[in-house]
Amino acid sequence: MKIGVPKEVKNRENRVALTPASVRELAERGLEVFVESHAGDGSGSADSDYIKAGASIVSSAAEVFSQAELILKVKEPQPEEWKFIKQNHTLFTYLHLAAGPQLTEALMESGALCIAYESITADDGTLPLLAPMSEVAGRMAVQVSAIGLQIAYGGMGKLLGGVPGVEPAKVVIIGGGTVGFNAAQMATGLGADVTILDRSIPVMRRIENIFGAKVKTKYSTKQAFEESLADADVIISGVHVPGASTPKLISRAMIKSLKPGSVFVDVAIDQGGCAETSKPTTHDDPYYIVDGVVHYCVSNMPGAVAQTSTHALNNATLPFIASLATSKSLLTLLKNDKHLQNGVNVARGKICSAQVGMSLNKPYEDVAKVLQF
Fold first, then answer.
1. How confident is the model at residue 99 (pLDDT cuts 50, 70, 90)?
2. Where are the beta strands (DSSP E) in the chain?
């Protein structure tokens, strides 16, 4: 199967779907790889690096899509890319369709097989291709909240870690999963006062076993949730429902009750966000203020640290890419791999994800029925 890597076109998206090292791994298996010129510039890889690794450099996205069958991206296809996606393509990227009805319609019309990184599962129930970017986003959430607290950005003017004789900022993290855990690592490292809200006793137990007294945990009853947020200087949401829209846990009224100049970072914005006041922003204009609260809702946070993110993503995706590209029968591969099956969001004009279908209020069908295996 011929592989294509277009240059990402989403605002400030500097990641790329394949590194030169990954290209070399695939080329040495006899696979042809077509990379759009300058696709790797933002993540530190020049066209010459790809050529040396065994890729062919092409001049446009249109040429990538026309030459290749397996299309590898990082972010969901943007409107200007929709016209290139055809029935013969297998698209492998982050999709987040629960928050993208128009994109979903476009992919259905294309007839392509669309596999979402974020929906692929592992034996232990984790999401192996979402995890590395969740790690990056969790750590970045603390960095951007520290900036948001500065007066120039509308914040209250508080240093995240405080100084001797002055209390540090209070950071409340919603959810103790991958995002929350990594946010806690960064926040405690900077000296913040950190609390994690969760409803899983095993998750809270793990956090306390690792962080000890550096991180407080609270069982997230409605009262504990509201009281913790009202007392916070920084709120970081790590809420995630696999494949589905994020529940709106924070109402507009709750936002009004927060401290003026506090900061809210919604890491779940690519799935719709967890606050009624959340709306997607870009790296060019990341912050906005609602009722005195500074919001950060960039939907491709890891794109700001593209070198780290690209390598972390490739470490996770490469085995799946190799499996897809070298398979003699894609249908047989999907039939025998339930975890890869879970990644199929759209195929042959049908939605194959129950979570996406329910989130968009659209009909969906089992992937085995759609692909007839």
1. confident
2. 3-5, 33-36, 56-58, 70-72, 90-93, 113-116, 170-174, 193-198, 215-219, 234-237, 263-266, 287-290, 293-296, 344-347, 350-351
